[in-house]
Design a protein that fits this description.
Elements lengths: L1 E5 L7 E4 L4 E6 L6 H9 L8 E4 L2 E2 L5 H4 L1 E4 L11 H11 L8 H14 L15 H13 L5 E5 L7 H18 L2 E6 L2 H7 L2 E6 L2 E6 L1 H6 L4 H6 L6 E4 L2 E3 L14 E12 L3 E8 L2 E8 L9 E6 L5 E2 L3
Parallel strand pairs: 3-8, 3-9, 6-7, 7-8
Antiparallel strand pairs: 1-2, 1-4, 4-5, 9-10, 11-12, 12-17, 13-14, 13-16, 14-15
Length: about 325
């Protein structure tokens, strides 16, 4: 899918070619332009200035139903009074697939999709009788039933627990590669870029900030803002053009020449695998993301070390 000079309401028009058979994680904070981009791709809004090509065909003036772009939302959006079968079959029926006595074809398609998403034994149930993970699988199956080339997903895994997110994410990657889909996965969580993304696209102020593989964008951010979007927690700033990532800070030096900062610890969080120190360094609030269980108490002063190669400086 190729988008040229699309007006998202920002200072610059948006252009990008999305890879087929791949998941592009569109990463940005609130009001970055993610929803406007998704609606423009799906044809849900009056077409803004710009051009959207799907399989080299200009669909900019094609309505949402004929555009056949699948949508999956954060909430479990299913028809509550319809069975799982009827939910998944609804796009097929809307496209007229069952009008000539070919209900068996619809049944085969629905069963195949349900089996792929491990809900094949739930087709007679209502969505309200399903778990959150099962409901989201129904929503994904219904989107895939549109048999389009593009799938737009608005943080569909955010309301699931960690294990379900991991499992469904793996299934999603398998389906995308097998079907050659172009997937836009909208999120504000940089972890999704690394766990799901073949590519990450950073949006800020309704404009494209940077794109590339998650590792390339992480290792070579074009600006402090790009580095901050790819960091959780956000980056620590020495000044307007110099940053340190929280995961690069240590309580002991790693090599001669490490930079060192005095930090007053205000609070400590731990997950067992990691410890987060919330500190005051000079006039700035910093976070140090340390491996393991660090023996540090709130109210103490510590030294934080960082290798000089991990001090990231940007040109003005």
């Amino acid at each position: 899918m190729n988008i040229r000079a699309l007006d998202l309401g920002g200072p610059h028009t948006f252009s990008h070619r999305f890879a087929e058979g791949a998941i592009t994680v569109v990463l940005g904070r609130n009001n970055a332009g993610k929803t406007r981009l998704a609606r423009a791709v799906a044809g849900l809004d009056p077409s803004p200035p710009g051009t959207v090509f799907i399989n080299d065909a200009d669909v900019s003036t094609v309505n949402a139903r004929r555009r056949r772009v699948g949508l999956v939302y954060q909430a479990f959006v299913n028809y509550p009074n319809w069975s799982v079968f009827d939910n998944v079959a609804s796009p097929l029926k809307a496209a007229g697939k069952g009008r000539k006595g070919n209900g068996a074809e619809i049944a085969r398609t629905v069963q195949a999709l349900a089996d792929r998403l491990r809900i094949g034994d739930l087709l007679d149930r209502l969505p309200g009788a399903l778990s959150g993970g099962q409901q989201q699988r129904v929503a994904i199956a219904r989107a895939l039933a549109q048999q389009g080339e593009v799938l737009v997903m608005d943080e569909p895994l955010v309301n699931l627990d960690y294990k379900l997110r991991e499992e469904l994410g793996l299934q999603l990657r398998e389906i995308v590669r097998a079907d050659g889909l172009t997937v836009l996965y909208l999120t504000s969580d940089p972890k999704d870029a690394f766990t799901l993304g073949d590519e990450v696209l950073l949006l800020q102020d309704r404009a494209k900030l940077q794109s590339g593989t998650p590792l390339d964008v992480y290792n070579a951010p074009v600006s402090p803002e790009a580095a901050d979007l790819m960091s959780d927690p956000g980056v620590n700033r020495l000044d307007q053009q110099t940053i340190v990532r929280p995961e690069h800070l240590r309580l002991v030096p790693q090599a001669d020449g490490d930079a060192v900062f005095a930090a007053d610890v205000s609070s400590v969080e731990t997950s067992g695998a990691e410890t987060f120190l919330h500190c005051r360094v000079g006039d700035a609030n910093w976070v140090a993301r340390l491996p393991g269980m660090a023996d540090v108490e709130a109210g103490t002063r510590v030294r934080l070390y960082v290798g000089k190669e991990d001090l990231i400086r940007f040109d003005t």
